[in-house]
Amino acid sequence: MAGKRKPKIAVWKFASCDGCQLSLLDCEDELLAIAGAVEIAYFPEATRTRLKGPYDLSLVEGSITTPEDAARIHHIRRSSKALVTIGACATSGGIQALRNFSDVKDFISIVYAEPAYIDTLTQSTPIGEHVAVDFELRGCPINKAQLVEVITAFLAGRRPKTPAHSICMECKRRGTVCVMVAGATPCLGPVTHAGCGALCPAYGRGCYGCFGPMEVPNTEAMSGAWKALGASEGEVMRVFRNFNAWSAPFRTESEAHEKEE
Amino acid sequence: MKKKNETRVIKVDTLARVEGEGALYVKLKGGAVCDVRLKIFEPPRFFEAFLEGRDFNEVPDITARICGICPVAYQMSSVHAMEDLLGLRVEGPLRELRRLLYCGEWIESHALHIYMLHAPDFLGYDDAIKMAKDHPGVVERGLRLKRAGNDLMALIGGREIHPINVRVGGFYKVFEKRDFAALIEEFKWAREAALETLKWSAGFDFPDFEKDYEFIALRHDSEYPFNEGRIASNRGLDIAPEEFPRHFEERHVEHTNALHCVLKERGAYFVGPLARCHLNFDRLTPLARQAAGEAGFGPECRNPFKSILARGVEVLYACDEALRIMKNYERPERPALAAEPRAGTGHGATEAPRGILYHRYTLDAAGRVTAACIVPPTSQNQKTIEDDLWQFIPRHLDLPEAELTGRCEQAIRNYDPCISCATHFLKLDLVRE
Predict the structure, then answer these.
(1) Could you say which of B50, B159, B173 has the minimum Cβ distance to residue A98?
(2) Best CA proximity match to B284, nearest among B309, B308, B311, B320
(3) Does residue A1 belong to any structural domain of this protein?
(4) With an 8 Å Cβ cutoff, are A19 and B50 in contact?
(5) Considering the entire predicted model, what is its pTM?
(6) How far is A81 from chain B (nearest CA, A)?
(7) What is the ipTM of this complex?
(8) Other beta carbons within 10 Å of B265
(9) CA distances from residue A41 to A12, A53, A182, B186, B391 in whole angstroms, order as listed
(10) A118 with A217, same domain?
């Protein structure tokens, strides 16, 4: 990124709710400064402008669920110097990866009267299963301060600082009393990746895993603690089957409880 | 010169400044429109299917994920449908707090659409960032107004996107009156900014286009509708939410991954801010009614391009209403009513920023979902958007290709389509034959 040319940024969408790319527009205080520092070359949700690649930084939202998208992501990778996935869909397949545990034909016929019109893959998969990814930003949705950090870091040529420890550390830092210890409320915080700022415990409820698995999660012990608080096999299975259900640690754990149920 | 029977195609492969992925394909032959297809190619995500088997308490956290722009609407229609099923009525301060959360979402979503998605069409820019170079104060005002809505959602919901504090029966956490002190000050600014927004957008050059639509919106005894009301229209429809399936039908059309929802008796209809203003103008606050009048906007407006004014009126109303609720706030005695599972079917209809959002769930005795049905506003407006283009394009065939394409895109944006919601789309192909 030498010289005076502004770095070109592109924002791409696959199967998703648009929330993670909206996070960029939700940076109300930083948006015009970011837009001043970079050239927004492709971002259909925000602009009609479409500039050709190569792009210095591609932000990718959403998971791969159609044959066209499985091909499109390779074109994007080839035209991007750095590719960063934003959010749980792009990083672990998203809530739509719940189809991966069922027969997708049944799913189509539940939602659509004419299944023949629908072209979809049997699985929803993260971007990293298709192409090399330079950095994965977690969260459903991502944290917008972390998004600004990721963009800043890539433009400066350094790794982003986004801690991979658990939600528990964020509760301690925030001064939230443990909802599990003090309130006997089942909480997924001990195995969940930091990033949200430990919101749920601060609002008196247990974590439900929006940021996916932390770096070395002991999911088996986590399930044991849930059951000790009275959770059923089905409840344990379902809490691992949310927005990061297809990430390996959560997938393995939920499958263990599916058998038990 | 163009030949008399020339075929022309107008194509927009990826519609910009809409939420989600869609395309437009229009085919013209000899100056007549012969095909209009609003194609939603956003991949389907099958929410109704994977909700089956989930516990009723998990549903509002999952349905929020249908849409990053209007998660509160999904959470609200979910909890109201569940409460209908369980026989719960959330009243008093808890009900007011839900209304306040919804005000935040309307302000955030409408300010995004007015300033960042729709205004650039009227002022001739590709996007709000380029608009900001010539109109920095305007864009900064829009961003701060949007942030006020987001700040309200972040306080009550925990965060702006996919709030964590909503549950069947109420909330996980409720607040002290002093928690709203800083927001009350910001909302006094926001209400003035909303007045300025309306004055500013009233000066736009609106295409001369009107249609006699069937407008459908919730109608409540005393309130401008958010969470509650009967489903009403300007052609005599007046039904409770549980009668929705008897009067509406979702059709699966080949060119789109979003189902078209139509009235069984009369076909296409119109939901969203223009419909709400038409049916509920008398329920706006005096300030909002007066400002609408000064902006040359009223309940009889049938020009979809003026929906930006309806959004402006609703932002003003939502600021006014949020201030009322925050000033009169009393801490609820408890955060939520107890919700015990039982078997049955429940219906919920609330007003998402883009229009009516209907949910229906069936639970078994253990509280597990056995069937779910979700009808988002954009699938209800899809047919009306196509009908608008059938009428709009023949009047503007003299326009150069790029300008005509731009006008078609603007006509689609009138509806603030949320394609992520509707697919469960947007791209323009204009073919001239």
Answers:
(1) B50
(2) B320
(3) no
(4) no
(5) 0.95
(6) 23
(7) 0.95
(8) 11
(9) 11, 8, 50, 34, 34
(10) no
